[in-house]
């Protein structure tokens, strides 16, 4: 059985396990890269040396976090095939996972946040800043929302995060005002939360949302690199710095592991300096 044929069985099995379409698309890409390197060879002929040669080349060009995902998929794919007796041996059994590499998330500073707020003149711009900051959502979660999902009585909305896991998030009064203004300004009849400005009206893509955010950052003339996910970092960091528990922040962010959230407790910049000055 060739690697491409083995993938069809793997995809079918993981679909039944309710893996998200996004996750399976990512895995399909991972296997495609392996096949491009090795060729669509017989899966039974793949050895640890084939896999190590591939991973050595990938490590040269990937960020540590991306390389970790690459190793994780290869280990999972071949372990599954062996457990289902589709392979007589598991060639990835000795593929070691690289050590966790945590980069300290970089929230936008408070001055930058205020500059973005001041520069927000249209309802869409105000919505992007206030909703993404006060709800701590991923841009992909924003993309999937519809107008009917919003509960303005509780200022809450249910989003579907990684692995299609549902969670309730909350947003500020400022965000509510901008959202309502945005809905009132719309000329379309679409149900999506954020819609393209011009006909044919359709759900605004993730790339378009990012583009609008970059455009706002240029208009605000901020000195740092600003993109939607940094507002999520700001949300988490501000909650931690203001006394929220790690467990609460983990649940609000939709993290599976507390260790993933713990990185926000690492001190950086002004906070580190402030703590240092207490002693010297």
UniProtKB/TrEMBL annotation:
Keywords (A to Z) from UniProt: Cell cycle, Cell division, Chromosome partition, Cytoplasm, DNA integration, DNA recombination, DNA-binding
All residue ranges annotated as the Tyr recombinase domain in the record: 103-277
Keyword Cytoplasm attributed: yes
Ranges of residues in domain Core-binding (CB): 1-82
Entry-linked Pfam families: Phage_integrase (PF00589)
Alphabetized PANTHER family for the sequence: PHAGE INTEGRASE-RELATED, TYROSINE RECOMBINASE XERC
Name assigned to this protein: Integrase family protein
Organism: Evansella cellulosilytica (strain ATCC 21833 / DSM 2522 / FERM P-1141 / JCM 9156 / N-4)
């Amino acid at each position: 059985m060739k690697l491409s044929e083995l993938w069809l069985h793997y995809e079918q099995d993981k679909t039944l396990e309710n893996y998200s379409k996004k996750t399976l698309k990512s895995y399909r890409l991972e296997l495609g890269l392996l096949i491009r390197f090795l060729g669509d060879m017989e899966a039974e002929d793949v050895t640890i040396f084939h896999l190590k040669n591939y991973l050595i080349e990938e490590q040269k060009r990937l960020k540590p976090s991306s390389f970790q995902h690459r190793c994780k998929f290869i280990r999972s794919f071949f372990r599954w095939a062996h457990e289902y007796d589709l392979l007589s041996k598991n060639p990835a059994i000795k593929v070691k996972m690289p050590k966790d590499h945590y980069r300290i998330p970089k929230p936008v500073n408070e001055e930058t946040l205020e500059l973005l707020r001041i520069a927000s003149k249209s309802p869409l711009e105000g919505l992007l800043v206030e909703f993404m900051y006060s709800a701590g959502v991923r841009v992909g979660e924003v993309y999937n929302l519809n107008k009917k999902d919003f509960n303005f009585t509780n200022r809450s909305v249910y989003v579907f995060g990684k692995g299609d896991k549902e969670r309730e998030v909350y947003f500020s009064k400022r965000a509510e005002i901008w959202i309502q203004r945005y809905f009132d300004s719309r000329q379309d009849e679409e149900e999506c939360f954020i819609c393209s400005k011009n006909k044919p009206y359709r759900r605004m893509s993730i790339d378009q949302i990012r583009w609008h955010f970059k455009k706002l950052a240029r208009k605000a003339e901020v000195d740092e690199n600003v993109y939607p996910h940094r507002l999520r970092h700001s949300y988490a960091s501000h909650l931690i710095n203001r006394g929220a528990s790690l467990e609460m922040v983990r649940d609000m962010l939709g993290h599976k592991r507390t260790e993933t959230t713990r990185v926000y407790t690492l001190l950086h910049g002004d906070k580190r300096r402030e703590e240092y000055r207490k002693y010297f």
